[in-house]
Fold these 2 entries.
Entry 1:
Amino acid sequence: MLTIDHARLRDAIAAICIAGGSEDHEARIVADNLVDANMAGHDSHGVGMIPTYITNLLNGGLKPNEHAEIVVDNGAVIVIDGRSGYGQVVGQEAMAIGIERTKRFGAACVGLRNAHHIGRIGQWGEQCAAAGFVSTHHVNVVGHKASVAPFGGSDARYITNPYCAVMPATDQNPPTVLDFATSFVAMGKIRVARNKGEPAPEGALIDTTGKPSRDPNIMYTDPIGGALNPFGAHKGYGLALLNEILPSAMTGTVGCRPETRFDPPKTINNMLSVIIDPNRLVSRKRFNEETDAAIANVKGSPAANPAKPVVVPGDPERMSWKKREAEGVPVDDETWREITESAVSVGMRADDLNDIAGI
Ligand code: NAD
């Protein structure tokens, strides 16, 4: 296991993106987004995504230096096309447009379609929260093989369709950031288990007969040898299905089906975001008081395990950030090997990458 200082890891990832054809500004946005996911503790959506990005880039499924394009404009209700550009860039641009519309109209509904992988969805809620806004984000994933079985099914029909809802900070509390895959765990967590040679979390996977499995390798065969379960049985599945339909049906694009798979595969996210300025409904003071009272109420519950007090969504990521800022970002050897291979495939020397990363 390597431990890399986060600033050096940002430089190393940016260097790979530049070698892949990105302008400096884009490379920096992508690197920051991925390393920020590692800092938040979500290694599944951190720098370990680079091999997939570079594969898609070399296959033409990811287009560098693209920008968000508004394709339907009804003021507070807009559809934006990501043009297969880096999701980190077009995601940030789409949210900036949504925030500007929310300032004008009090709320906005933003459909972002055809963005390459947009990473950790919490980032987009945090961008809205920084402007003082509440937001919800329904996301689906299209372009490669399905990985999640519907509740009661035995084969994969859709992908990990994350959901995110974020409340802005108050005077007393940082933003509440609820952000998760609707599968039992995010697919990246299966990749991390596979790379570490560890079993998949119990309950996460089924094999092709619908029986539980702990072998992460079954998810990397073609045809796929199993599927992720949805989280929360029929409830998680129901949310996943809404996430599957809303971002496609409301933006004029398609969801995950055998006929919408790309060859070679790519990783496209579609996202339906609703952004609301709470001050158009109540005063900031009233909103903050109620938010703070609710958080204090749940945090007042005596911990079942005294070593683990009650926290609210967003707290675990902030704790991880503090720790990794001080101690560095752990990157397992297999992930670094794959990242190095990607760097070499876009013309970098492995030694140069290691020098930049301080390894
Ligand atoms: P997870 O299971 O770790 O859940 C994370 C959420 O639960 C966060 O909101 C966190 O603050 C909250 N949480 C964790 N422990 C808590 C506790 N004890 N009390 C209260 N809240 C707690 O996340 P995941 O499902 O593994 O998803 C990881 C990341 O993967 C997310 O950022 C998600 O957006 C991302 N993702 C992206 C895509 C994509 O296609 N772009 C697909 C799937 C997942």
Entry 2:
Amino acid sequence: MLKLFNTLSRKKETFKPINKGDVGIYSCGPTVYWYQHIGNLRTYIFSDVLKRVLIFDGFKVKHVMNVTDVGHLTSDADEGEDKMEKAAKKEGKSAEEIANHYWTVFREDFGKLNISEPNVWCKATEHIKEQVALIKKLIEKGYTYETEDGIYFDTSKLKNYGKLARLKQEGLEAGARTEMRDKKNKTDFALWKFSEGEKRQQEWEAFGKMGFPGWHIECSAMSMKYLGSSIDIHTGGIDHIPIHHTNEIAQSEAATGKKFVNYWMHGAFLTFKGEKVSKSKGGLYTISELEELGFKPMDYRYFCLTAHYRTQLDFTLDNLKNAQNSYERLKNIVSELKYDKKENKKYLSEFQKAIDNDLNMPKALGVLWKLVRDEKAEGKLATIEKMDSVFGLKLLEREEVEIPSEIKKIADERELARKKKDFKKSDLLRDELRNKGWIVDDAGEGYRLKRGK
Ligand code: AMP
Ligand code: ZN
């Protein structure tokens, strides 16, 4: 029985989809104005693991992810510049070019990290019609008001606004979340903003003026379009709880009168020296930057799996190095295994218990390590293959390692010594290889080289 922690109830709940056997997941996707850093990517590894666990448990999954290419202002609320417009101006490109470039890099990172792509990618700018229609519905139902700069959602009209974040409207400090301008309540938020100031690249005519959608409305409109008015699971990082997801619930439930999402799931932050990764504090690496430092994307995936998704994970290059060592060791051990018989039921059921307990991946990794170290266990390889459908660590994939010519020369020399039965020399050369980080195995007529000490 799969149990998932629901942010709405702050409890682990038994997972029951709306339609038996089918699961709809909506994940808030990237704002494509810059590269996604490894912190962002931790959140997408989490939703990927969620999806893989559901598939492991026999569910059919439809996964939808949006691409925010308009309307996300530099604050998560309604102030500041539009991140896309700002980046376009800075880079001297069109907003569309910027969006396509960073979205492409993002998808490349998905490939590198073995994150399976969603079934539907949806861009905010390609769903203006749906967003405008949803706002019209909210206007008709009397949930909105217009100010000089936009159309706002009146949060005082909704009972339970803030239930996800357990916000108390009156408890919010004035101006702490957002500038008031002409807003009636501190928590009110823009559904549609009118174009002001400099001419925008991205603007559409609606409600009698040129303007653009607020950030939150895209997720409500697109999730309804692709998954219906009530969805099973919605994911994102914890920073989305107080504003973005709170507002998604408000506008969706006001429009449909139905419960928007049954299970809200949020991933904790990747931190750097205990603080959120950021430009000023550090830790803002991209996957490509880690590669330049000699890491493989899979080292980072392994690193993420060592922590539960609801626990903060502290990133340092040393921590990543430790993960890299463990991952390489694991792959080496797996590469030695041969298929014997079918899956090992005992280990698989222990594994399933871990993943079904709110995706306890550190525990599941523990089960995997116990299995590889258990000399008596049968069916190791088939079991690991099955487990890896959830880990997504490509444990059975053999990489073509390039052997440097210097190493090959030593290994050839050793092979010759061995053939001449000069075992003293061959042992010395074996040690030399080991010191250089290579292990040589005799294999019938020749030898095999692999990385390791
Ligand atoms: P954004 O492109 O800013 O909308 O962020 C994309 C996703 O990354 C969102 O789900 C955020 O909640 C998440 N996120 C942002 N920073 C971090 C972090 N340091 N660790 C984990 N997730 C993060
Ligand atoms: Zn969203």
